[in-house]
Write a structure and sequence with these properties.
Structural class: alpha+beta
Strand content: 5-15%
Helix content: 40-55%
CATH topology of the largest domain: Glycosyltransferase
CATH class of the largest domain: Mainly Alpha
Number of domains: 4
Radius of gyration: 26 Å
Largest sheet: 5 strands, mixed
Shape: globular
Strand order of the largest sheet: 1-3-2-4-5
Distance between the termini: 58 Å
Length: about 700
């Protein structure tokens, strides 16, 4: 790539924008300067949205944005604006929705054409440099759009009006007069069950995404006695962790699988995918007792702590799919490479265990490691015990890891995003408490402290921090995910500072994002810059919807604080989105988890006594090692200032000076217990055995 050119993006902090700083395109970042230029010169805006780990974004850059001839056309006819979707999800949400209204599937790179006021009138995703695959060339699109702007301005204005009307309708959901019930959740479970692949797990056909919220929903049904749902979740989790979507050498999950059996991934690794999958594996371990699920969770945490953690705390965003210009090069192996790294016996074992052959299972004779034989199967072939095989496989992975570490690593996007860090802090809190993973819990605490120190200004959250610079107002996701994370840290550590901070952030969330007129939450705050539409966040995308997480926060805090108004607000969200949940359960997985919490009433556990006492830690372990998805943990230290008020903690006292636990369900609390086994018995009470059930399609 030539570095003769330098454009304005050289002054940005986003790694994605900096990747384009030497394109011959006269790029602007989104802002007043670009909008003023477009108005002054009466030019349309060419908006290009992507992110650092996006493979096709890199392809379009190489093919078009680095080509001086294409750049000349872009610069002559448009004001060109480049946006990092991870920094500006507000813009991405608006223009992605507009492009989808044209019948385009959506995705990245996103290419949208706007009026100088930022109103969309045409767009698409990736455009090739030449006419191919039924797609017009990028150059042809540029010239056609420019001509339409100059010669058919009235038609452009008509199109703009249609888009703006469509965007306003996306925020409107016809409220239901019916009360949301457990039947809605049960119907969603049945619908999701019907779409599970009974052979390879996962939902639907290729390409396959993990869909963590849907897996959590099925796992809850499984824990309530639905054996089919439980079997489908455990099948999916096992197949994913044995597939190529999982990094068999270094741990952690790639973005998604292009095939139905989880073999060939898109190789980028996203913080948010791993942050959501760790809890599913921990919960599966809690629900089934299977060590396999705990091991995958630990290995995934190990990857994040090793590769994706800033020295001062806080978690990086993504790792690229490409290295040395080739997708997946860092992760794949030839048989020759395997045999060069490993001695003959280990080499043969590795090839048998992980499907490595001369012809390969990927491009150019290379192999993606995936599990094709169990230790038991390998034991009979190699004349060893399964335990010996397991030990040798561990040795193989260590040797391969060392050899792979010497390769050129994929690029890493070192933005620290508040929302994504919230997801990972929650994962660390859960794994720390449920698996006794002290390093994970410590990393979660450090990340929360990093955000408080670097991404908080006057009590308000900022979106992104890179290389010492924090900027951009926080969005609903940032507030909601971090609030949830702080509640999770509180339940894992009983440290009251996390609860106080969560409560303060939650109040700010309601003040800035709550829609008083129609209920629900806007994606941007009241004092956000004015855009062509103020969108809501209802559907899950690659991450849970901010609305769903904020609604669950309402319910958790309603329970912990006895705040009835919060429960009523949550009910209003459910009524607004009830029909949408019924019609499209796969798009509302996380909101259905919140509804499940609401209609089944949480198990409320109050622990009384000094936080640091050994007996308190033993009680806390009795809580966290069990699978209790709808749960609220509150702590009372008789010797400390009051953190919580309300009916849940009112009157809860220590018995004879001992650490004491109360378990409450449906406004009724147990007698106090001072023994962890007695607490365990209370928590197990009324938990169904997982029983047989026929598949929902039968």
């Amino acid at each position: 790539m030539s570095h003769t050119y330098t454009n304005r993006l050289v002054h940005e902090t986003s790694p994605y924008l900096l990747q384009h700083a030497h394109n011959p395109v006269d790029w602007y970042a989104w802002g007043e300067e670009a909008l003023k230029k477009a108005k002054a010169e009466d030019k349309p805006i060419l908006l290009s949205v992507g992110y650092a780990a996006c493979h096709w974004c890199h392809v379009m850059e190489r093919e078009s944005f680095e080509d001086p001839r294409v750049a000349q056309v872009m610069n002559e006819h448009f004001v060109c604006v480049k946006v990092d979707r991870e920094e500006r999800p507000d813009l991405d949400r608006i223009y992605q929705s507009a492009v989808q209204m044209m019948g385009v599937h959506g995705g990245w790179p996103l290419t949208a054409f706007l009026t100088p006021d930022g109103e969309p009138f045409y767009g698409g995703t990736y455009f090739p440099p030449d006419d191919r695959h039924g797609l017009p060339s990028f150059n042809r699109i540029l010239l056609s759009v420019s001509r339409a702007w100059r010669e058919d301005r009235e038609e452009v204005r008509t199109t703009v009006g249609q888009f703006l009307d469509g965007l306003s309708h996306l925020n409107r959901f016809p409220a239901s007069s019916a009360a949301p019930t457990a039947a809605v959740v049960e119907a969603a479970v049945r619908a999701l069950s019907r779409s599970v692949d009974p052979v390879h797990g996962g939902f639907g056909r290729a390409p396959k995404f993990p869909h963590p919220s849907a897996l959590e929903l099925l796992l809850r049904a499984g824990a309530r006695g639905d054996k089919f749902s439980l079997d489908m979740v455990t099948l999916t989790l096992r197949k994913m962790a044995e597939g190529g979507i999982y990094d068999q050498v270094g741990g952690g999950f790639h973005r998604y699988s292009v095939d139905a059996r989880w073999l060939v991934p898109h190789f980028e690794k996203m913080l948010y995918d791993n942050a959501q999958l760790i809890p599913v594996y921990v919960h599966a371990h809690q629900a089934t007792g299977e060590p396999f699920f705990a091991r995958v969770a630990r290995e995934t945490i190990g990857y994040v702590l090793r590769e994706m953690t800033h020295p001062d705390g806080g978690f990086y965003s993504t790792q690229d799919a490409d290295s040395e210009g080739e997708e997946g090069k860092f992760f794949v192996w030839t048989k020759e490479e395997i045999l060069r790294v490993l001695e003959p016996e280990l080499g043969e074992l590795c090839c048998r265990a992980f499907d490595v052959s001369e012809s390969g299972n990927f491009e150019h004779g290379k192999s993606i490691l995936h599990v094709v034989a169990t230790p038991e199967q390998l034991a009979s072939r190699f004349g060893k015990s399964p335990e010996e095989i397991a030990m040798l496989l561990g040795k193989i992975k260590c040797k391969l890891f060392g050899a792979r570490d010497a390769r050129v690593k994929p690029g890493r996007d070192e933005k620290i995003l508040t929302a994504w860090n919230g997801l990972m802090i929650s994962a660390c809190a859960l794994a720390g408490a449920a698996l006794g993973h002290g390093a994970a819990l410590e990393a979660g605490v450090r990340a929360a402290e990093f955000i408080e120190q670097h991404l908080t200004r006057d009590g308000r959250l900022l979106r992104t921090w890179t290389a010492g610079e924090a900027k951009l107002n926080g969005y609903l996701d940032d507030y909601a995910f971090l609030t949830a994370a702080l509640l999770d840290l509180y339940e894992a550590t009983l440290d009251p500072r996390f609860f106080r901070r969560a409560e303060a952030l939650h109040r700010l969330t309601l003040e800035q994002f709550w829609d008083e007129a129609d209920g629900g939450f806007f994606f941007t705050g009241k004092d956000h810059e004015r855009l062509v539409a103020r969108m809501k966040s209802a559907y899950d995308e690659a991450i849970p919807s901010g609305t769903a997480v904020a609604t669950l926060n309402l319910l958790r805090l309603a329970s912990a604080l006895g705040e009835e108004a919060y429960g009523k607000m949550a009910d209003r969200v459910f009524r607004t989105l009830l029909r949408a949940m019924e019609q499209s359960p796969s798009g509302f997985g996380h909101l259905l988890l919140a509804l499940d919490f609401s209609v089944r009433s949480p198990v409320e556990i109050v622990l009384v006594g000094p936080r640091e006492a050994t007996a308190m830690q033993t009680m806390l372990e009795a809580v966290h090692r069990r699978y209790i998805p709808n749960r609220v943990v509150a702590h009372v230290d008789p010797a400390a200032p009051v953190t919580l008020t309300g009916s849940l903690v009112e009157g809860k006292r220590a018995v004879d000076g001992q650490v004491t636990a109360y378990v409450c369900r449906d406004f009724t609390c147990s007698a106090p217990v001072t023994d962890p086994e007695a607490l365990g018995a209370l928590l197990e009470k009324d938990r169904p055995e997982v029983g047989a059930r026929r598949p929902p399609s039968a």
